[in-house]
Amino acid sequence: MELLDQLPALPTEARVAAIERLIRNSSPVIRERALRTGAAVVSDERLESYLREEADDVLRNAGLEMLKMRGPRALGLAVRLLRDGDPDVVLQSVLALGHVRDLRALEPLRAALNHEDQNVAGAAIEAVGKLGDARAIPDLLPFLDGDPWLQLATIQALGDLRSPAAVPPLAKLLTDLMVGPLAAESLARIGGGKAFQALCRHWLRFSAELDAETMVGLLAHVLEGLSTAPRNQEELRASLAAVLAGNEEATRIAAARGLLALGPGPEDVKALEVLCDGPADASVLPAALAKRKDLVPDLLAQPGKARSWGFLLASRFPRAAPLPALAAAVRDELPPAELIGSIGKAFRKIHDPRLAAALLDLYLEAPADYRGALAPLMATHRNELKALLAERRDVDDEARLILAAHLGLGAREVVAHIVAMEPAEARLRVLEQVAMQEELVRQLPWDEWLAARPDLYAGLAARVAAEFSLRELVPPLRAQLGQRPNPDLIRAVGELGDRDSVPVLLGLLEGGAAAPAGARNLVPLILESLGRVGGPEARQAIRRAILEGRCEPRIGYRALSLCAIEEDDALFRRAVGHADWYVRLACADVLGRFMRPENLAALSQLAADPVGIVSQRALSFLEA
Amino acid sequence: MTHGPVAMTPEEHLLLNEVIERQFGLSFAPAKKEFLESRLRPRLQSLHLRRFIDYYLLLQVDLDSELEHLARLITNNETYFFREVYQFEGLFAEGLGELRQAGWSGELRMLCAGCSSGEEPYTLNIYARQAGLVGGRWAIDAFDIDVDRLKMAREAIYGVGSLRSTSEAQRAQYFSGFAADRWQLRRANREGVGFAYGNILDLDSFRKPQAYDAIFCRNVLIYFSEGAFQHAVANFARALRLGGLLFLGHSESLIGRSDRFETVRLERCIAYRKLRD
Question: What's the predicted TM-score (pTM) here?
């Protein structure tokens, strides 16, 4: 690992030599990093020599991996090597081209299909499949009748090409004991009506001899992808119903998916039960239900996953959702936040007082911090809710005003009500609920309130100041910051980039005993705000906090990355081997900003980082 | 005009996932980034936070008071009465025999881990009442990290969804009508069940001085990372008496994953018997 960390500082030749040693390391992490670094720094000539290596398998394999890791940049070298006299070298370049998946490689690969070496030809067939251009099908079909190795490669490639034209030749192979299962998988990947018919016939004829989990899974997959469910499938239904009643969970789930995708049937209730008890995600409508608008009422009547799917389905087919079912579902339980958008989509197309009443009940019963999320939903029934509010006597004044604000009551009118509201605590409760409306927020007398009751209003005033850039509030907020520091105030001065707050923040950070109680716990937020404000004093303070170990390294480095200048890059270069991935990410961000040779070398090391987000960030800078 | 938080970045997702996994054992893979984002977004709006990193930083300075909100946002509360009752039947049929062989006598102490709004412990209670335990002595503790759900559990008022597997006869026998499409579990069926806040990853939050004879933790660990799963299983082992039984959901298996337990095949289900701490 030490050698790996020294890589960026080594001269090129020494670096390549080090990489050649590190690719033999017993640690997969070190090997991976060495390969990534090699992909970035090893020359084409050197890489070609690796691919030609006959005695050293490790080096040859490393050459292939580096070529793959180069992505589209590998194209030129790989295409050139397709014409090489050494079949092993040609094979490596074919494998790399298949990995890179660049359509520019299609013509060169077609030429390699008839290579005299069968390994090369097989790899070329698979690589052509991976390119995904169906025009290559006629080139591939002859291999279905030839050598078994090339036959397998062709079946795989035809599936990859996903063209209906490949269905008939693949269907003929389903009964072949050796290649049948692979042909079935390829047919399922192609999908469509013809593939379904072929798989269905095969299943019904040989179900007793086939692996049920695989075949029913493939059938369900194809059925889910059809634009309309196939008709007259009683035999298949009966067969899947028998599987549904079995013991094997994965097979039962596949059968449930298949049955539901086939359209309405007597097994729907059981199939839904199986699907709900399975691992499917509540926030994603299963493909098997995507066309089942007839199931909307049943799904809405159930809780949890089924109801979530009911809302998702209703958003696709709003007219299929009966109002009583929709209203009851909304009233029954607070919908998870991820479904609000889908529910809103369904509700926007349905206008009825019953639904509005259900929405109002939902809103009134929701926890205060969730009501803001419901605001878009309420807006879908603005007029109905306004009428309803005028009638309902069970809504208290605070809730009534909040709702009126959400439903479009003029900002001036809402402000007048809020200002007149007593006591101040009640006013604050209302403000918390409406403070996301900029027009309204800007008309409120924050100055007066802050002067009168800073203890009460400073937090919310800081939040709205940060959110809507209310710079006029900065002086009174800054005054509060020194006396009663809290997360909102600290965040606000950072968001607003208030340089005059830096001494106050420094006092909180470094004031020791002089700092107000609790300031120490706020160090992460203080550093973040110093980073956002920036400037020499802020930078120096953050650097000190990092170097003296007075903060979590990830918090310190992140904060410094927000305001770093070129002279900070040495600190970040020294941290590229830090144990915390978030520190290394900050290093990539800063070093990518200042592209000096030594920073490029450090970025090369980060490009080999085992954490994907770090290596991708570093690579993006290197590629730019 | 209203503002809202900007989209969650991949690094913000990783940072928040680290906190959630450490605190609750739950893990949201990159493919679930949008899901996590939509769950957390209302909280950010409520706090007027513009970015998810701001929420991460807030968790760094005030984790204790924010944990409750976070738990409510990220947990999955899918449960209903009489769900997968074969495990309850298994406990009160052959399971008791297994426990007796391990030296159990007297009060049967049971724990429901991740009880959500109470449907599972209450169903267990109904089965315990029917089992005719000698002396009628049993106790059920139930815990969850979502305090709102615990409040619902104590109120024991449920909608149609919670009763979706409850027959008309069961509804009439165990519940009384509360409001339109709302039923309350009768008092007799609530007695003997205690609810408290607890975190599966924090043994001290749910362990009592006297060890449990049986623990039910069903369809909760399925959302856990492997590390958190192992941590949870170790906690259950410490909370169970020697020879005590652990029941997991049908998608969650201990086979080959823990040497603290051995598999016990009951007639209609399997359970895991504690071998050692």
Answer: 0.73
